[in-house]
Amino acid sequence: MKSIHLPLLLGIFASLLGGSVPAREQSSEAGAPKLSLSIRCTNAVVKAGDEISIEFRITNGGTNEYKYADRTYDRSGRMEEYMLVVKTASGELVPDPRATYTGGIAGGLHGYKTLKSGESFTKVIPLNRWALVKEAGRYEVVGHYPSVLFGSNSVVVTSAPITITVQPRSEKELYAYICSLTNQLAALATNKDYSHRGEVDTLVMKLMFTCSPKIVPTLLNTMYEAERGFWESEALQFYVPRSDKVKRAILSVAAKRGLASGMQYVLTGYGCDRDDFVPLIKASLAPENRTSWQEGALAAQQYSDDAFTPRLIALATERNGAARGRAIYALALNRTDEGVQALKALLVDADKNIRSTTENAIRTAYRYRGNSKGRLLKPEDFDSSYQQAER
What we know:
By secondary structure, the chain is an alpha+beta fold.
């Protein structure tokens, strides 16, 4: 196992795109830990479409202690410090599902731990988060632990390669596997206190790793459950092969039920534009589609239309309504006379949180706006203090 000093970090990532990692000795800089990395597959048997679990074992072979961030998740869905590169038996790189991801590292709650001399720690992650292993065959896997990103010392360690054999799974077997996962999800859906969220995440991820279009109906159904959407949108955006059929399926469901959490992100990835989104927002804001009000109000901030104003005012003024904040921002980002009057009333609302939200929405509409294409507020609509840039 090789340890690589910070100045070589960029070279490592560049080398991953075109060849093997060059062997380099660790810097002798005082304080640098002598870490080593080994990896192993924990699956007894791997079949095409399975989640492939890889255990990272990081060992401190030096005399200096190593302080590291002990994380169990990342809001972006992938802990970047546990990196895997996979090649086929012929030496071709297996595509990274996140190759086009632009969200960056989002972070997550963690605590710090210290690895003393001679100690090791382990972390198990799905190889499928780093490589679209969809076919049977033999694969070479190399792990990288770039602790410079999260630890207290500038060192990157690379494992020796391991070989994984993925056994074939017939279409019939894959369909049976998908049905089994779908049935387990259906059984959990009867639990309405949402204590099953972690179990649902696990099952949706397993479906995601099949990379099969047959999982689309299940994904579109679970997206509408409370506090859902991330893993479903991840699957639709990066794992299920894109096709007109899949796009039409998403649009058809959204036209009836409104937008689910994460669906705008997926449809944007499919190239949908204002003409596609306006009717979906209308459906999302409809009184009968309560579960889609928040997503409709969010999409209306970008794809504004005066026809949305009456419903946005109704949502913005609904006591204890979950969509109030997003609706307030949507009103501020597309000026109408009715919207301005509603915002002025909200500035003196009895709820101080609503007053604060309204003030921030007005400032945003004057100063920042982001990707909103709505009509601008007039200078005379609100006090000049909302319009002045912060010093």
